[in-house]
Amino acid sequence: MMTRIKTRKIRVGNFFIGGSSPISVQSMTKTDTRDVRATVNQIKRLERVGCEIVRVAVPDMEAAKALGKIKKRIDVPLVADIHFDYRLAIEAIRQGVDKIRINPGNIGSRERVEAIAKAAKNARIPIRIGVNAGSLKLPLPERKGRTNLHQGDISHSGRMSKARKMVTSALQYVKILEKQNFHQIVISLKASDVPTTIQAYRSISEKTDYPLHLGITEAGGEFSGSIKSAVGMGILLSEGIGDTIRVSLTASPEEEVRVGYEILKALNLRSFGPEVISCPTCSRCQIDLIKIAHRVEKKLQSLFPQKSVIAGVQPSGFRPLKVAIMGCVVNGPGEAREADVGIAGGKGVGLLFRRGRIIKKVKEKQMINVLIKEIEKEVRRR
Fold first, then answer.
1. Which of 96-110, 279-293, 324-338 has the lowest mean pLDDT?
2. Cα–Cα distance between 158 and 173 in angstroms, integer?
């Protein structure tokens, strides 16, 4: 397993990020926060798919005052997302949120940041300094004689790169908080451009040991956004960078959580639920493998609720279930034999495997039901 860069351990409600804590998966509600019922219902759905920390937008004082009611009805840590008006952060803290996110690009003066830090310190909750490339302040002037720049910090034209502007902005606000003797800090540096995001996080990870929240902001729709997020965050996570993640999609927040877990699972950073191995199909495939794979994956979602992985705690002796759904004789039998449960298809038929042994031959129309029944038996054994 890859080695994570060591960061400070920060408490968020009943949860920890950084240090040796498992990399957590976050999301953000897409409801009107002032609508307490709708917001709570969406958070409950997020809880069911394994969201470990949830963030809500706080556009005005009415939304800020609704946070206490929301907090009482949910089981995951609640983060207030604050822009423009520092007074919303103060009220959110009064309402009992578990963390505040502020944006250096629009939160205002040093005095306002200090006021938030004082309130958060008294409440013993952390602050995330969330820098977004789209809301950066004007570039800071270069200091004459400065020579300790990293490669890539300055563009060919000699101007400060966007990634370095993001890092500089974040570190300025870190210093403001530290001068208030406040150290419960999380940092994020998000851009919609993947290379810029990677460069920014690599740079900040060399300059501080505060935990880092990863994300590609405004990544796009479910398809393209998932790919951009997987590429950007996957590269950083593979280098040991990152303590918590959020996949930002123009899609349901539940899908953000599912994609987040798949990214972590692909890198062997979180072990949970089933792993499905299925071939892409080709002209050698003589069964409707795509239909079979879709049906089985949907069933697995109901058999393995992600809520069981909250806090990264696995039952004693837990071992993820590996399911193989293969369509031809090239790799099919080999992959199916190595899975806990697997099926390898032939012409209108398939061989059902359990831990390397052939159990039975089944007709194509029976494959889905037979495979699901065998998976359910395996789940009961666990």
1. 324-338
2. 25
How far from the centroid of its chain's Cα atoms is residue 59's Cα? Answer: 23
Q: What angle do CA 8, 131, 23 make, to 5 degrees?
A: 40
Instruction: Give CA–CA dist 362/201, Å, rounded.
Output: 51
- Entry pTM: 0.85
* Strand, coil or helix: 102: strand
State which H helix or E strand residue 369 sits in. Answer: helix 367-381
Of 103, 123, 115, the residue nearest 12 (C-alpha): 123
Report the SS3 class of residue 353.
Answer: strand
Q: Is 317 helix (H, G, I), strand (E, B) or coil?
A: coil
Strands (E), 153-260: 185-190, 213-214, 244-246
Residue identified by tokens 């990214």 is 263
E strand segments, the chain? 10-12, 15-17, 24-28, 53-57, 78-82, 99-102, 127-132, 185-190, 213-214, 244-246, 274-278, 321-326, 341-345, 349-354, 357-363
Q: Are strands 321-326 and 341-345 parallel, antiparallel or unpaired?
A: parallel
CB neighbourhood size of 220 (10 A): 17
- With CA atoms as reference, report the closest residue to 243 among 52, 114, 376, 69: 52
pLDDT in tens, 71-101: 999 999 999 999 999 999 999 999 999 999 9
In whole angstroms, give the CA distance from residue 363 to residue 351: 9
Please write down the long-range contacts of 288-292, taking CB distance under 8 Å and 24 or more positions apart: 288/364, 289/325, 289/326, 289/327, 289/345, 291/368, 292/325, 292/343, 292/345, 292/367, 292/368, 292/371
- CA–CA distance, 216 with 5 (Å, rounded to integer): 20
- Strands 321-326 and 274-278, sheet pairing: parallel
Please tell me whether residue 299 adopts helix, strand or coil conformation. Answer: helix
Number of residues that this document lists for the chain: 382
Q: Which of 17, 70, 55 is nearest to 311 (CA)?
A: 17
CA distances from 276 to 37, 73, 170, 216, 333 (A): 36, 35, 40, 26, 15
Write the CB contacts of 310 (distance below 8 Å, at least 6 apart in sequence).
50, 52, 76
